[in-house]
Design a protein that fits this description.
The complex is a heterodimer of chains A (about 400) and B (about 300). In chain A, about 45% of the residues lie in helices and about 20% in strands. Chain A is of the alpha/beta class and about 400 residues long. In chain A, strand 13 and strand 14 form a beta hairpin. In chain A, helix 2 packs across helix 12. Chain A is globular and about 65 Å long. Chain B has a two-stranded antiparallel ribbon. Classes of the chains: A alpha/beta (about 400), B mainly alpha (about 300).
Chain lengths: ~400, ~300
């Protein structure tokens, strides 16, 4: 009987939470020093991304950056002549289903004027119909899959982004490796079960071969693997000039260590999944001399300033996603100011003609692609525990 | 609460429910645990999306073809693995689910691991509810039929049912095939709700989630499955207010409910008009000594 009543109690509790959370406002970050502001003086902006799961490091960094920037803007007097900004951030776990739910919640219940994020292409693609129905714009941060903004040659009206796309990244890596560094034989080790990895591999291979290089080895692993020695042994036999790693930093660190153990001394090369402070703690010696196609030039004074502000506030290093979240905020604020009113449709119109300077470069939104057009990639090289800027590099896509 | 948001959650709950109903037949009524049902969902999802996108078929036939495809694959898998008992079958399905996911990861025709965007948006709350009602009616009739009773006999005591002349293997296979067909239809609904398919959506986590819903709702209870799917799909969304602690609280509440109600929410009972009548009589005659009246409400 005791058990039964306990179960009943629990069910009641659950129903109660249901009822309560239905009525109560979600946990939001009220900005602007605690003073109560009237409803119409607050502009709500949504954020979504991974706060849990294997990309939580980046998601948390993004949300923190957005919060920090909104606080700064509010302290300076807000936007549109005194309106305060407020961010409502939800976790997607990196799961497409959750992303759709979050998009519905942000647009329907919280009535945000725009959404920043998500960082994963797999979450950014399925939210498009929700955005179109609600007519709310979304600015993706690091979603590099071309299909996030363009589908079958048609631009998605409410999807924007601030990063370059995978074909571009692949072309830059191939072009820089072939033309500037003089690599002719490349080996690729990629994650067979990852969308980002498959995309980057495809485009790197395409452009590298088009330039006249050869792919001497193309080996795959599956997310969660920790031993890469079999693949690396084959790569060693193929004797490449460079090992291209279109993957994320965790596996890259393990691969770098094991590659050096096996006596592979050629430089490594990677895309925007590699740069992380974690890379140094896991494999500092092994990744020396690695070339990375990156979104940011870390030596830029604007970048340094943002980095310091973040470190002072949170006591942590700013991850790559933070810079792009910053640019997404810059882009959005510009659009809100030019729209002159906090209305999602007006903001979308303003976004289409946006041309702003962010920390990762000039962001000029293309009307037919909703991508930042002609944005240059920054090539960085790992030396010591620093990402040393090499040069800005842009590639021609055809 | 916004209507669009709520109907979104309910649609997702309905899609889960479709898969759970199938799994309920296999796990709840035939007594076999499967950790590979996300694999059947993937097959159904990709097949039905292929039908609507590449061949321009209408929604409902595409769904049925998706279900059929999943069912066909399951019959092949079933022939190979159904001789395995208990835990071994469980492991085999687990391997199957992962294998299917990895195959889709590498089939570039379907977009590989990068996913397949641009599937038409056909699934909505209305067709999900209608399809679920049809599915429930079919399932309820099935478990009361001769075949259904045979399946329950297999669940209760495999050896004994064999002795009385039930073809155990055949009934397990029928159960698996119907169950896979349900999962396939659910996959098709999912594809046309998300308008996007990626193998990541059908990971082991999804299979486990489905099994948890069946056990949480109560093994051998269709109404339990319905309740379980509704509660467990909406719970993570309801708990959004807890921000960072959301998933911890979700896990805790499932654990606590399983501890306090080991046989699941419904524990083998069903919500039917006659069981409701019995329940009301029991509440009326509370003071009288009628210990086991609820037993009469058990329709399985």
């Amino acid at each position: 009987m005791l058990k039964k009543s306990l179960a009943l109690l629990l069910i009641c509790l659950m129903i109660l939470t249901l009822a309560l959370s239905g009525c109560s406002k979600p946990a939001t970050e009220q900005q602007g020093g605690g003073e109560t502001t009237a409803e119409e003086d607050v502009i709500k902006v949504g954020w979504m991304g991974s706060l849990t799961g294997d990309q939580a490091v980046w998601g948390q960094c993004e949300l923190n950056t957005v919060k920090m920037l909104f606080e700064e803007i509010n302290a300076k007097g807000g936007v549109l002549g005194g309106k305060k900004l407020e961010v409502i951030g939800y976790d997607t776990k990196g799961d497409p289903q959750e992303a759709v739910n979050v998009a519905k919640r942000l647009t329907g219940q919280d009535k945000v004027v725009a959404i920043i994020g998500p960082n994963a292409s797999g979450s950014a693609i399925p939210i498009a119909p929700v955005l179109e129905e609600a007519k709310v714009p979304d600015i993706a941060t690091v979603a590099t899959n071309p299909k996030v903004t363009v589908q079958d040659g048609k631009v998605k009206p409410f999807n924007f982004r601030v990063c370059f796309i995978d074909p571009y990244q692949g072309a830059v890596a191939a072009g820089y490796g072939y033309d500037v560094l003089g690599f002719r034989k490349a080996a690729i080790l990629y994650d067979v079960a990852d969308d980002y990895s498959q995309g980057l591999t495809e485009f790197f291979e395409q452009y590298f071969v088009a330039k006249g290089g050869t792919i001497v080895a193309k080996e795959a692993f599956k997310f969660g693997d920790v031993d890469f020695r079999p693949q690396l042994s084959k790569i060693k036999e193929a004797n490449p000039d460079v090992l291209f790693l279109p993957i994320f930093f965790k596996e890259a660190a393990l691969i770098a260590n094991q590659a050096r153990e096996l006596g592979i001394t050629v430089p490594l090369m990677g895309g925007d999944g590699l740069p992380s402070e974690q890379l140094f703690t896991m494999a500092k010696d092994a990744v020396q001399g690695t070339y990375i196609v990156n979104h940011v030039d870390y030596d830029d004074p604007d970048v340094q300033d943002l980095k310091n502000r973040y470190r002072n506030k949170y006591g942590k290093e700013l991850e790559l996603n933070g810079y792009l979240a910053h640019d997404a905020v810059v882009l959005l604020i510009d659009a809100i100011e030019r729209a002159g009113v906090a209305d999602p449709v007006k903001i979308t119109e303003a976004l289409e003609t946006a041309d702003v300077q962010g920390v990762t470069g000039r962001i000029k939104i293309g009307k037919d692609t909703h991508n930042p057009e002609g944005k240059e990639a920054a090539i960085v090289k790992i030396e010591g525990d620093k990402y040393v800027f090499q040069q800005k590099y842009s590639a021609q896509l055809d | 609460m916004d209507l669009n948001y709520i109907s979104g959650i309910l649609t997702l709950a309905g899609i889960n429910l479709m898969a759970v109903l199938g799994l309920s037949l296999l796990t709840g009524f035939t007594g076999m645990f499967s950790f590979g049902h996300a694999g059947f969902m993937a097959i159904g999802g990709y097949t039905s999306a292929m039908m609507t996108v590449k061949f321009g078929l209408p929604f409902i036939p595409a769904l049925l073809i998706g279900g059929l495809a999943a069912s066909l694959v399951s019959s092949v898998i079933g022939r190979l693995t159904l001789k395995l008992k208990g835990d071994y079958f469980c492991i085999a399905t687990l391997g199957f689910g992962e294998a299917i996911r990895l195959i889709f990861d590498n089939v570039q025709y379907f977009g590989g691991a990068r996913g397949w965007p641009g599937i038409p948006h056909y699934t909505n709350i209305f067709n999900v509810i209608i399809l679920n009602i049809i599915a429930i009616v079919i399932l309820a009739n099935l478990v009361r039929s001769k075949h259904g009773r045979n399946m329950i006999a297999v669940r209760e005591e495999e050896l004994a049912s064999q002795i009385v002349g039930i073809n155990v293997f055949k009934h397990k296979l029928i159960s698996l095939m119907i169950s896979a067909a349900y999962a396939g239809v659910a996959g098709g609904l999912m594809a046309h709700y998300m308008t996007f398919l990626a193998p990541k959506m059908f990971s082991l986590v999804k299979s486990t989630e489905l099994t948890i819903i069946v056990i949480f709702g109560g093994l051998g209870s269709i109404s339990g499955s319905v309740l379980g799917a509704l509660v467990l799909t909406s719970l993570p969304e309801i708990l959004r207010a807890f921000a960072d602690w959301r998933l911890v609280i979700y896990g805790l509440s499932v654990v606590i409910i399983m501890i306090t109600r080991p046989s699941g929410l419904m524990g083998g009972y069903e919500f039917t008009p006659s069981s409701m009548k019995k329940l009301i009589t029991r509440i009326k005659n509370r003071n009288k000594d009628l210990p086991n009246q609820m037993e009469g409400g058990k329709t399985v």
